[in-house]
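Before the break, one more example. Copy the sequence into your notebook; we will annotate it together after we see the structure.
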Amino acid sequence: MFDFLPGVTNPTLKVYIKSVSEDVLQCEIEDNGIGFSKGSNNKFHDSKDVKLIREGLALLGYAV
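Here is what the structure looks like once it is written out:
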C-alpha cells in the first residue's frame, strides 16, 4: 500500500488511530519519505495511498 523511493534509508511508516469522540476517529500517518518541496502549497496530497486509506475507512463504516 505504501511505496518509498529507492534512496530512502531505513523506510519507516507509522499509523496512529485515536478515538477523539464516540463517532470520530483521528488518523495520523508519519513517514520518513521525501515529502513535498518547500515551495509546494499542497497541504494534503491526494495520493493513491490516501485513496486506499479512505476506501478502507469507508468499508469499516466511517464517513470520509
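The first helix runs from residue 48 to 59. Strands lie at 13-21, 24-31. Try to locate both features in your own notes.
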